[in-house]
Write a structure and sequence with these properties.
eight-stranded mixed β-sheet; 12 helices; globular; binds flavin-adenine dinucleotide
């Protein structure tokens, strides 16, 4: 049954995190446990930590198909935005918008507490972020974001063309604003740190794919060729949820891509703008995110593909083209690491947070911004199992309502159409007089 996600290239973040990488071992024997979690991303790790805290006398078992931090959690761009007005205000009701913001803020407090308590070195920086427009269409969108921020009295700084060139080193951006409310992190270092600091009553097995689940509490789970008998089963498997037979019509899988530069020379570093550390998120939905890291490296995340990972050469070319559009003076061989990662999207942005059967639970639908959200939802999922009430849990149970997504071929057509629609809006605005 279950197919898991495997990637063509390793995470560049994990490759440069050599000083803190966890040595994961696969499952070597059959096991019996009360709590089994499948998935060692932010969702599964937060669930494991919370279970261990609530049940110190139980042994909590986690299995993952991949090596430590080789999942989406260890291959993302590391933006932890805890006030995403631009994203949520447009679509969500006030109630949903407030709930999602609370989730992110609670997720940040939870992660920060763990990072501080365990001295996890992961480049945690309250850097803020730029929101930038590369097209006329984007400029219009950015104006709308500014109006929303003003209405909600959220402070931001608008950059002049000269400030954009000076701070970001590029003339590619037509307009930009800077906001706080974004923490930047080295995602693979964070994931390795989260694994290493799990309580002693959590056992995590890597390179241990789940290939079959039978029974009904207790579940008989085949993992890495061994049998695990589990009373409670928590599926924190992101894009793989449909492979377990759940959320098939609630989520779809998109791949997105990232490149990380080799160490920059002094002059290359200066060419990426005056500050040592910055992050840019795009205002146009299909555009790129980028980061400058401690003055030493540059990262670019861009592009999407439906359901399947693009060939490595195509990805590299796309990223290099995007790099050169922004920084034409850079060398085309700047990227030392190039990789793809998968995300699960729901139609209305709500996560899948569900009881799927008797003592069977599922958490997915990260919607491409899951560091804070999936961390908090992992904890709340366990609170729902253990009967630990909170206002945020109640809201999550009431408001997580991902709606129906038709299957292929309609699904594929809808994805293509929405990508084309955004592209068309951009093309139209580029032709219009400014
Ligand atoms: C390139 C990229 C950039 C991104 N940038 C950001 C960003 O800047 N900020 C942000 O907040 N989010 C970002 N995201 C999204 C973020 O990475 C995800 O939302 C988050 O990692 C989801 O966490 P998770 O625990 O739900 O899933 P995952 O990290 O995907 O973990 C799920 C785990 O389940 C395991 N699994 C699946 N099937 C099986 C099986 N059969 N057997 C065993 N194990 C299985 C997988 O191996 C995996 O480890 C980005 C994602 C990508 C790909």
């Amino acid at each position: 049954m279950a197919k898991h996600c495997s990637y063509a290239s390793p995470s560049g973040w994990n490759a440069i995190a050599s000083n803190c990488r966890v040595q994961g071992a696969p499952l070597q024997t059959d096991l019996k446990t009360r709590y089994l979690i499948v998935g060692a991303g932010y969702a599964g790790l937060a669930a494991a930590r919370r279970l261990a805290e609530l049940y110190p006398d139980e042994t909590i078992v986690v299995v993952d198909a991949l090596a430590p931090a080789e999942n989406s959690s260890g291959r993302n761009s590391g933006f932890m935005i805890d006030l995403p007005y631009a994203k949520i205000v447009a679509n969500a009701s006030q109630e949903k918008s407030a709930w999602q913001t609370k989730l992110l803020q609670a997720g940040k407090a939870l992660l920060e507490d763990i990072v501080q308590k365990h001295n996890i070195t992961c480049g945690w920086g309250e850097t803020g972020h730029y929101k930038a427009a590369t097209t006329h269409f984007g400029v219009g969108e950015l104006r709308a974001v500014e109006r929303t921020l003003e209405q909600n009295r959220v402070p931001f700084r608008r950059l002049s063309a000269g400030q954009i060139r000076d701070e970001l080193g590029s003339s590619h951006y037509k307009q930009a604003i800077w906001l706080k409310y974004c923490t930047l992190v080295q995602p693979a270092e964070l994931v390795n740190g989260l694994i290493a600091s799990l309580p002693a009553n959590v056992n995590v097995f890597f390179d241990t794919p789940v290939t079959a689940v039978t029974g009904d509490s207790p579940y008989l789970v085949t993992a890495g060729g061994h049998q695990i008998t589990a009373e409670h089963l928590l599926l924190c498997v992101n894009t793989a949820m449909p492979c377990f037979g759940h959320a098939k019509y609630k989520q779809l899988t998109l791949y997105t891509y990232a490149g990380l530069s080799r160490e920059l020379s002094q002059s290359e570093s200066e060419a990426f703008g005056s500050a040592a550390e910055w992050g840019i998120t795009p205002v146009e939905r299909l555009e790129a995110t980028s980061r400058k890291l401690g003055g030493k490296r540059f990262m670019l995340r861009a592009g999407f593909s439906y359901k399947r990972e693009l060939p490595a050469e195509k990805v590299r070319k796309m990223l290099v083209d995007m790099l050169l559009a922004r920084y034409p003076q850079m060398s085309a061989d700047l990227f030392e690491h190039v990789w793809g990662g998968a995300v699960s999207l729901t139609r209305n942005g709500d996560p899948v947070f569900e009881r799927l059967g008797d003592k069977l639970y599922g958490l997915s639908g990260c919607n491409a911004s899951g560091i804070l959200k999936m961390t908090m939802l992992g904890k709340l999922l366990v609170d729902s199992i253990a009967g630990v009430p909170s206002a945020l849990l109640k809201q999550t149970q009431e408001l997580s309502r991902p709606n129906f997504i038709p299957p292929d071929p309609i699904r594929r057509i809808a994805v293509d159409l929405s990508i084309r629609k955004i592209q068309h809006q951009i093309n139209q605005s580029e032709r219009a007089p400014s």
